[in-house]
Amino acid sequence: MTDRLRPHRLRLGVNIDHVATVRNARGGDHPDPVRAAEIVASVGGDGITAHLREDRRHIRDADLRRIQDATDLPLNLEMAATEEMLEIALRHSPHAACIVPEKREERTTEGGLDAAGQHNHLAPFVARLNDAGIRTSLFIEASERQLDAAHRLGAPVVEFHTGEYAHAFLDGDSEKLASELKRITDMAALAAKNGIEPHAGHGLTYENVQPIAAIPQIAELNIGHYLVGEAIFVGLEESVRKMRDLMDEARG
Ligand SMILES: CC(=O)[C@@H](O)[C@H](O)COP(=O)(O)O
Ligand SMILES: NCC(=O)COP(=O)(O)O
């Protein structure tokens, strides 16, 4: 059996946003995120993730169709819960859409979506994406309250924001790291028990990925900034391949 057909293989979605960040720095068309998507496909990545931010600071509208045309890999579109983004998602019909919180002035996605506090706002977005056959995911903190809200909203997938875990790792705060890992581990088990597929991502690196990858219920990791950063030194093929190997090693 080839690796990609293994029943419980942890999927790697590669977020190519920051290839577009570098492109946009000079306003031209190099480096092209489409070329990155093709490389990800050639080295066994399982999906492409792209966050079309409202301010278009990296991925732009035209990139989406070009990515979809260039590879057969499933596209996971990260999007804010706005009418504009919903219309774009419905028009492009990606394999998956992950609803993320978005603040115009933030440097990156700072926390999880408040699915519990925004139930009434989010419900029509989840319903319309689900109705269109797009696998809807909510990018939430690993907490019982948010997971329960995702369940009530009818989201088939959640992605746990691993930013706090990644910060604790960087800070060398072993107590916080252990409690973040426990929180994600416990919530992954609860999600799976409730029939929700748990994913994880944000701030994952070669150094911190394995404890997260080892959580048995987690079906997919979405990793971007670090892989693109490493690619500057070793190339995207090599950075994706090494991440893949580390994930496989963690799963045993
Ligand atoms: C939601 C999320 O975590 C990703 O979108 C990722 O962080 C890349 O985009 P930004 O760097 O713009 O947040
Ligand atoms: N949803 C998380 C993601 O797509 C990638 O986050 P990062 O690795 O760029 O921090």
UniProtKB/TrEMBL annotation:
Major location (coarse): cytoplasm
Ranges that cross the membrane: none
GO MF terms, alphabetically ordered: pyridoxine 5'-phosphate synthase activity
Location within or outside the cell: Cytoplasm
Keyword tags: Cytoplasm, Pyridoxine biosynthesis, Transferase
Catalytic activity: 3-amino-2-oxopropyl phosphate + 1-deoxy-D-xylulose 5-phosphate = pyridoxine 5'-phosphate + phosphate + 2 H2O + H(+)
Binding-site list for 3-amino-2-oxopropyl phosphate: N15, R26, G203, G224, H225
CDD domains in UniProt: PNPsynthase (cd00003)
Pathway per the UniProt entry: Cofactor biosynthesis; pyridoxine 5'-phosphate biosynthesis; pyridoxine 5'-phosphate from D-erythrose 4-phosphate: step 5/5
Binding-site list for 1-deoxy-D-xylulose 5-phosphate: D17, H18, R53, H58, T108
HAMAP family: PdxJ
Name of the molecule in the record: Pyridoxine 5'-phosphate synthase
Native species: Sphingomicrobium clamense
